Amino acid sequence: MDYPASTRLTRMSAMLHEPHLARRWNCGLNLYLKVFLRKVDPPNGAASGTAGDWSTRNERGPARNIVRWRPGEFEAWAAQYQRECQSFWDTKFWLCPPATYAGMDFQYQGTTLRPNARCGLHLSLVTSDTLADHTIEVVRLADTEPYYRSDSAHYDHRDLAPNPTSGGLTQRAHIHEVGHLLTLGHSNESDAACVNNNPVCYAGPNVMGSGEDIDTTNAVPWQNAMAALTRTSSSQWRVTMTEILPAVR
Ligand SMILES: [Zn+2]
Question: 52: CA distance to ligand 1 center in Å?
Fold first, then answer.
């Protein structure tokens, strides 16, 4: 393996870093997501105006009342978005190589070690559409506007707050949406009764369902990246949620 090994995936990229003492001789596999948060103010410098939401665009719903972002408010919102998405998804999984894969093996004090890969996320905010893997428009709703239906590319300023979902669960929408940016589908989408994003698709407490639980099924984006980097198949990389030290060969 020549480190760092990198690959461009669909609307993200991945890099595998060499085993490092500070990482207890495990490798680091990082996914890189570049997000442009586009601040949307009312047009023509006005203090207030309207903006369409998902319903406006798809169901002829009314436009929503928006106001100008206050000084510093958007920057604080963007920083919270970045910090919470990154900390939720970063360093949650380790991947153990298939028994037949020796491409990461290395020598240390006369012993051959087979490292595992620590899964990282680097979500960075960029300043233009052209630099971004994904662009999200963010409006500041008027305090009197009760409702804005967000989607993956359109948020309002209230979207960082935990929202009650179903079954007494709560979820922060941006944490769930970053799962989609990482290519994850809904947690229960293999259920035959899940059609057209109905509530069946979101059943359960997983972050890709209605809550914020995370489990080994959420490691698929890293397994896919490792498969692309090593020409193995993704399901051969066993997922753990606690660090496992390199195996002695
Ligand atoms: Zn979703």
Answer: 20
Distance (Å) from CA 61 to ligand 1 centroid: 21
Pairing between strand 26-40 and 117-125? parallel
Phi, psi (degrees; rounded to nearest 5) at 164: -65, 135
Structure-token match 């999984």, residue found: 93
User: What spacing in Å lies between the alpha carbon of 9 and ligand 1's midpoint?
Assistant: 21
Looking up tokens 């006005």 gives: 46
User: For each of the chain's 249 residues, which pLDDT tens digit applies?
Assistant: 899 999 999 999 999 999 998 889 999 999 999 999 999 999 999 999 999 999 999 999 999 999 999 999 999 999 999 999 999 999 999 999 999 999 999 999 999 999 999 999 999 999 999 999 999 999 999 999 999 999 889 999 999 999 999 889 999 999 999 999 999 999 988 899 999 888 899 889 999 999 999 999 999 999 999 999 999 999 999 999 999 999 998
Q: Which residues pair with 240 in a beta bridge?
A: 94
Spacing, Cα 25 to ligand 1 middle (Å): 36
Q: Is the pTM of this model over 0.85?
A: yes
Q: Which two tokens stand for residue 192?
A: 């035959």
